[in-house]
Amino acid sequence: MSVLKKEPTRIVVLVSGSGTNLQALIDASHNPEFGVSIVAVGADSGDIEGLRRAERHDIPTFVLPLKDFSDRAAWDVALTAAVTEFEPEIVVLAGFMKLAGPAFLAQFGGRTLNTHPALSPSFPGMHGPRDALEYGVKITGATLFVVDAGVDTGPIVAQVSVPVLDSDDVETLHERIKAGEREMLVEWVGKLARNSFHIDGRRVVLGRPLGNPSKELA
Ligand code: GAR
Q1: How much is the pTM?
Q2: Does the beta carbon of 117 lie inside 6 Å of ligand 1?
Q3: Residue 189 contacts by C-beta under 8 Å, 6 or more apart in sequence?
Q4: Residue 30 catalytic?
């Protein structure tokens, strides 16, 4: 049985680029029935449109460039602390081009979502659209998943497929993927936020785990 929440679910979104997926979430969150409050947007670079989108909507932002830290472990700890300050129930990586480290996963594992522009398990990594085009697949898409320690390997929440056209280059293909990706992201972030969720093996299940309230999402 799923439990519908009364308060909007607190979400922190992390971005590295243009932030069109973030924008789709911001737009959806303006409807109270969506059940989401975007409490902060974080980035690993200061000069990106994703941050400006948040600022235009008066959403608090923070920036943690990897190069400002002695090593990746120190950056991971700082990112974890920065996100923790906003007390999110769910973290969404929306085009965030860094891997979540051990400190981050210790705090937010099982409740961090990522969206990847390919149909997992095909074409993991930074260049999903390019790799799909180079391989010559006729269908590709996007995958929303719960982040684990691997590269785009976590339990899958949802997938959306799009055709690859003979006329495509990486940009046109990625734009077609992103159109489907944004719809998928909004639909499923809303569902997960309103219903809570838990992980059962490789499945992401809406609702709290039966008989184990201590493992429920905050
Ligand atoms: C999205 O397609 C997302 O899946 C991808 O970056 C794009 C961000 O677009 N993420 C990755 O490739 C992560 N490995 P946006 O900044 O316009 O939302």
Answers
A1: 0.94
A2: yes
A3: 11, 25, 28, 36, 90, 92, 113
A4: no
